[in-house]
Amino acid sequence: MTTRPLIGITSYLDEAAWGVWRQPAAVLPRTYLDSVSRAGGTPVLLPPQGGGVDRLIGALDGLVLAGGADLDPALYGADPHPRTGRPQPRRDRWESELLAAALDRDLPVLGVCRGMQLLNVALGGDLVQHLPDESHQTLPAAYVRQEVTIRPGSRLGAVLGASARVNCYHHQAVDRIGRGLLVTARSADGGVEALELPGRTFTVAVQWHPETDPQDLRLFEAFTAASCKEAAG
Q1: How far apart are CA 141 and CA 184, in angstroms?
Q2: 10 Å Cβ neighbour count for 83?
Q3: Residue 209: active-site member
Q4: What pLDDT, in 10s, does the model give residues 69-109?
Q5: Which CATH superfamily is domain 6-232 in?
Q6: What is the tens place of the pLDDT at every residue in 9-36?
Q7: Catalytic annotation on 171?
Q8: Catalytic pick from 95, 113, 168, 171?
Q9: How far is CA 125 from CA 101, 145, 174, 209, 217, in A?
Q10: Is 211 a catalytic residue?
């Protein structure tokens, strides 16, 4: 029987409502869980908490850094833009620690939207805090469908080909590129849409939301395949 890799997915810790209840809860769109499961992995929710990072990363076969709130600009030495969201230091700290431990171990990592921005900032890059034309986020909770051009010879290119139609929802973007990162996809306006760390088992991050496209599991399948090798090892 093939071992299904254990995939940790970071999540929100926020106010949520269900049934008669409304209270703080660990929250994550089900699309992440479904994408990991359908790609052959076993998803595990990783809400912000304190401690245990090394032991946790040692038990996982892969890490998904999910989308979510804006990163605190203080992480990259900037003052907040008026349109930047309220800082969530607990989540920033937790995910930064998870990412550092994953990179130290060369655990497969897939970053999604905020997850790509976190990877860039963790490696010394910074962000554009607000895109003035709002071309990647036009209406609340409505994804913008657009085409991205993918770098030939990249790991992402091997998975998706020369271009892809993707679902975007972000008002911030990568600016200065972090140490060692390779830009592997751009939108029509030149914005950075994907990054990866060459020479790693699998460290790929995209600015779009692949978990929202149930017809295209290729990125999650490639990530899970890399995580399977970690599980087998």
Answers
A1: 26
A2: 13
A3: yes
A4: 999 999 999 999 998 889 999 999 999 999 999 999 999 99
A5: Class I glutamine amidotransferase (GATase) domain (3.40.50.880)
A6: 999 989 999 999 999 999 999 999 999 9
A7: no
A8: 113
A9: 19, 26, 8, 21, 29
A10: yes
